[in-house]
Amino acid sequence: MDVCTVIQQRLKELGLEQRDLAVATEVTESYISQLLTRKKSPPATNRTDIYEKMNAFLKLPKGQLSAMAEAQRQEEWKKKLADPPAPLYREVRELVIRKCRAERQKQMRAIFEKQAFGELERLVTQKLLDVAKRIAKDELGNERWLRSVAKLRNQSYEEVRTVILEFLDTDVFNVSIGHCNAFLVPLIAAWDFDLTTFEMEVDLNRLLSPVQEVHFQYVERQESGSSQAEPGFNEFLGLSDLSEDATEDEIEFLRNLKCVHQRPTPLYYYRELQNLRDPLNFRASSILRLRKCRDGNAAEKRRQLDSSKRAIRRWTKSKVHTPDKNN
Questions:
Q1: Which of 113, 217, 264, 310 is the 20 to 30 Å CA partner of 98?
Q2: Which CATH fold topology does 3-82 show?
Q3: Is-contact 255 229, C-beta < 8 A?
């Protein structure tokens, strides 16, 4: 049983319509219709929030739809890889070359045109997509930014969300000129590729992106002399009061923190986690985000502060009152 069948059966059981699901997931009814009629493949689970919204609305077990979608996508990828990939649309290739720095365009064009869909063309196009999708994904949760874009594009909020969700599910094998015009053209200012070092540099539109440049390098790395995690970090992971709401990215960041001559405590990692989450510790990624931060609800900020204080008190209390095993 695939994702579409499960969703359709659940809608029927609950007496709901496609339009109800569209409203709950904040996308257009047309998008839901194309998913359920299999005109669109299920989106990748790590690029969208739609499965969480569907699970909640359809009262399904958490993670059920995303797990089914991932298995379905894996099967579709196996079928795609069995056939040779189709070349890029001519318009897409021209746009990618046009975005290349002027002094390198002639060389890149010769390489791209030597093969219908060569390794370098796929690599460059995929990296440009990755950069654009990273920005789009960051802004997907920014309702003010989405509504501003909707107003500029003369579209509804749901239509803009749908366009971004579709773009996030795009890969180098099915990118269209529509995706390019909507995202690559405005976001990517220029790119360059060094054929000697295999280093790629992407310049971004400073008016639309919080990041000015992105670099990709392909170099040999020496393994660190000690890959063992700090004892304090392992203890931090074992204390649910301190670490239970930490994301995978945050845990990976904390794991890579190194103190040469000191041994950090679990409380050190907890405080680093709070510093990582505090937007005041970082340059604002965009003017809109900065305004949103300033306009944030004071009660919510107080709640987060009180929660942090309670967690520290519980940890400190447990350390002070832990009975001595030797007594």
A1: 217
A2: 434 Repressor (Amino-terminal Domain) (1.10.260)
A3: yes
